[in-house]
Amino acid sequence: MLNKPLYLGLYPRFLTILNFNEQKVNLTQMKQVINFSLLGMFSILIWSCQKIVDIGPKENKPTYIVEGRITNEPGVCKVFVSKTKNLTDNNQFEGISGAVVKIENNGTSTVLPETSKGVYEVSTIQGTPGQTYHLNVQVDGQTFTASSTMPELVPLIDAYIKSGDFDPQNTIVTVRYKDIPNVKNYYWFRKYVNDKNQKGYDLLNDDFTPGTEVSERLSFGNETNDKVNDLKSGDRLKVEMSCIDASVYTYLNSLYGAYGGGNNGAAPANPITNLSGGAQGFFSAHTLQAKTVTIP
To answer: Is residue 254 part of a domain?
Structure first.
């Protein structure tokens, strides 16, 4: 489970070059998979769809980043508030204090106290699948809002390494889950090696697998040029599976197309955030499950 902003390991907060891994379609199992690997300085770059993404080297006026999440697990309700940085700045999280952060559900509003600079969290809220949660952040005279509906939990049945799927540079973990029929499902897989998150994630939907048992291959690897970081016997490979709603899927999916990943010759578009008010970031109410495999 991530205890820091996702953008520190996944998204470009600065105006940097992104390298996306292949977009693959498994024709044998008939499902769509989008695999992202974001290289460079990793943090969020989420622009509202009314603005133009400036990919030039000039410094830009900082804008707020709001990243919030609530899950079906107790104690996982957290919101990070910060600002974008310039290319020449460091990539460390520098939170913004003094925000008023609230989450509302069914007429009950809960204020999230600031537990450290820019981090607002509460352990008394546990998300419930099927419920819609509303985020409200007020800071420096600005208000940012978003809503997210937590999907039903799709059980993560198993995770394992098949014979022949181990390689020091690229090991494959196969996960199995049973898609829920008669409802649209979206899946977000994050990966960790010895509790350190990998820089890529896998994004799936059930366009071609509604109601079926799905086996998906997830790639773990050495993300450095140093062989000392090669995978080896005893390493723990953790898969974290989240069932996300359509708005979060759209954001993560649009991030791929925002930098020409669609390979269709079109000009880059802006990632579609579910936040309103001009902030970058996203808010997600999602289920959370994890399984860990140890390399034999």
So the answer is: no
pLDDT digits (tens, 9 = 90+) for 202-211: 999 999 999 9
Predicted structure pTM score: 0.79
How far, in Å, CA of 249 to CA of 258, rounded? 14
Task: Domain of residue 86: give its range.
Answer: 6-19+43-151+264-285
